[in-house]
């Protein structure tokens, strides 16, 4: 008999994709801080964003990464921009890809949005470089 409290297949796929993109340490930090208040939201994004959208075979993780960074930058979602720039180390998106995505943001969403996202990306890449040499 199926356990109604067991995670769905979509959730399990989403968690695997989420870990592949964001890394185990990020996901483990998020999971360890879950409360009854935010657990439903985390389950929703794991199934919907990671299980439905990010797990589709049409676009590669690199392509999804580029699109996601551009969209988040255009929307001014600074924390999410930083998180997804950091995730490029797992998705295969290059710094040149991020630069080109943010050039598109400048044209289609505005120079201020791109300018701010470029500042964030530079900071994240500097942190990643420092971690690599440490």
Automatic annotation (TrEMBL):
<dbReference type="InterPro" id="IPR003779">
    <property type="entry name" value="CMD-like"/>
</dbReference>
<dbReference type="Pfam" id="PF02627">
    <property type="entry name" value="CMD"/>
</dbReference>
<protein>
    <submittedName>
        <fullName>4-carboxymuconolactone decarboxylase</fullName>
        <ecNumber>4.1.1.44</ecNumber>
    </submittedName>
</protein>
<dbReference type="GO" id="GO:0047575">
    <property type="term" value="F:4-carboxymuconolactone decarboxylase activity"/>
</dbReference>
<dbReference type="InterPro" id="IPR029032">
    <property type="entry name" value="AhpD-like"/>
</dbReference>
<dbReference type="InterPro" id="IPR052512">
    <property type="entry name" value="4CMD/NDH-1_regulator"/>
</dbReference>
<keyword id="KW-0456">Lyase</keyword>
<dbReference type="InterPro" id="IPR012788">
    <property type="entry name" value="Decarb_PcaC"/>
</dbReference>
<feature type="domain" description="Carboxymuconolactone decarboxylase-like">
    <location>
        <begin position="41"/>
        <end position="122"/>
    </location>
</feature>
């Amino acid at each position: 008999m199926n356990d109604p409290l067991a995670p769905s297949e979509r959730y399990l796929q989403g968690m695997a994709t989420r870990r592949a993109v964001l890394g185990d340490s990020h996901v483990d930090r998020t999971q360890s801080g879950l409360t009854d208040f935010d657990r439903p939201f985390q389950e929703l994004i794991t199934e919907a964003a990671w299980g439905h959208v990010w797990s589709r075979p049409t676009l590669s993780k690199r392509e999804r990464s580029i699109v996601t960074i551009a969209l988040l930058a255009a929307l001014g979602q600074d924390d999410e921009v930083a998180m997804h720039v950091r995730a490029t180390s797992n998705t295969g998106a290059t710094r040149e890809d991020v630069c080109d995505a943010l050039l598109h943001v400048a044209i289609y969403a505005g120079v201020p949005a791109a300018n701010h996202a470029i500042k964030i990306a530079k900071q994240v890449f500097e942190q990643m470089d420092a971690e690599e040499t440490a």
